[in-house]
Amino acid sequence: MLIFFRKNKFYKIFLLFILIFFSNTIKANIIRDAEIENFLTEMANPIFEAANLNLNSVDIYIFNDKAVNAFVACGQKVFINTGLIQSFEDPSMLRGVLAHETGHIAGGHLARSDKAMEKAQTPMIVGLLLGIGAAIAGESDAAQALLLGSQQIAKGMIAKYSRGQESAADQAAFHYLEKIEKSSTGMLEVLYSFANQEALSPRQQKIRVRSHPVSRDRIRSLEEKVKKSEFIDNKDEDELIFKYKMIQAKLDGFLNNANDIVKNEKDNSDHSKYALAVAFYRQALLSDSLSVLDELILKYPKNAWYYELKGQILYESGKIEDSIKPYTIALEIEEKEPLLMVGLATALNARGDKGDAKKAINLLKESLKYDKKNSQTWYQLAISYSDEKNIGMAELSSAERHFLTGNTKMASFHAKKSLRYLNNSDIFKLRAQDILIDAENKAKWKRRCPV
């Protein structure tokens, strides 16, 4: 049977299904971590400024994927794979990738014609049809392979940059790094590491090579400039290298095989201890985990991230009362960190003592000044307001949460419920009405970025 896809109602329904499918995939793979986000921001902001980008308009997301890759989507949103952070030996290599992706943003390389989009839609739809058929037939493995395969085909067709754009992004990246007086040797090392992959078949190549084609001419052009740079020998500060090793260790601890980490961690370095603390926790060896973590806290009493991790481990182990102190200390050190505010508020809500809900509300409202895109903030606000018997604000908070994640049906449901309790003169009633209006604008939500 031949299947022809025309721009009819069926076609549009399938496109909507695809948007929902990929939206859920992206959101499910986003990692939020204050320590890693702060490090990436510290690395990236000077580059964004050198490219004359508005810092408030560019977002960085940590994408939980072992592939060594980074990509830009939805205009000015940069996604950094965990696999890339874990794999690069030196932070200068990560900086080079950030500079290169910034070159794509500044160069407007993300603009794609409708024709290119349509070419990608057909293999996506065919893959989805076959995948759904396999799922109905009970072939779960085949269904997953087909669904993911259609995603990879589309990703390759949409995200692939031309060699000209790649070269332009390289040159722009070099200019940005010169502007902030950083060496471009890390960027060259990244190109060297991928250059030999072009000789392999597309199936054997890494995703970054397929979406960011490498050529010898491209490397030679950059080599000449790097060798002439007055900043070629500039090295990163020891403090930055230490931070990089520690975020790598944290990711290793959470994402790699915990048993392997415990067996193989034989050195006494700080980053090894960090990974070990997480690995012990994942093995439910709470006392061992806290013992290693306390060693790091004793050595670095002003490092907020060790206290935060201790709070997280205690909270997730059911020791709610014990988790509040390390969360509090972490926030005293990093006073403006919104994720720490949300972490402490979550622990206070879970404890539920007299006055905890009000403290949580204050923390969560403060966190929104710095981060308005965390759905967990609104979820915890709904809990806090509910504990305070403020049903109107609890419902509005739930509406905000669902509105943020793109669930317009639930956003409308809770916004309508909030109107029963909010006063006519209340500014929050106007916000509930705004959510109802925006949620009904379906055309807007079809074009909405999934994060």
Q: What does the model show?
A:
Helix content is 69%, strand content 4%. A four-stranded mixed sheet has the order 1-2-4-3. It is globular and about 70 Å long. By secondary structure, the protein is mostly helical. The protein is built from 23 helices and four strands. The protein has a domain at 9-228: Metalloproteases ("zincins"), catalytic domain (Zincin-like), CATH 3.30.2010.10. 38% of the residues are buried. Mean pLDDT is 84; it is low at 1-7, 112-118, 131-144 and 154-159.
Features:
Zincin-like; mainly alpha; 23 helices; four-stranded mixed sheet; globular; disordered N terminus; 451 residues; 4 strands
Terminal CA distance reads 38 Å
- Architecture of the domain at 9-228, CATH level 2? 2-Layer Sandwich
User: How many β-strand stretches?
Assistant: 4
In this structure, how is the largest beta sheet organized? 4 strands, mixed
Question: Helical segment tally?
Answer: 23
Q: Determine the structural class based on helices, strands and strand pairing.
A: mainly alpha
Our estimate of the beta-strand percent is under 5%
Instruction: Name the CATH homologous superfamily of the domain at 9-228.
Output: Metalloproteases ("zincins"), catalytic domain
Helix and strand sequence: HEHEEEHHHHHHHHHHHHHHHHHHHHH
List the uncertain runs: 1-7, 112-118, 131-144, 154-159
Q: Which CATH class of the domain at 9-228 applies here?
A: Alpha Beta
Overall pLDDT confidence: 84
Strand order of the largest sheet: 1-2-4-3
Helicity level, as a percent range? 55-70%
- The CATH topology annotation of the domain at 9-228 reads as Zincin-like
Radius of gyration: 24 Å
In one word, what is the shape? Answer: globular
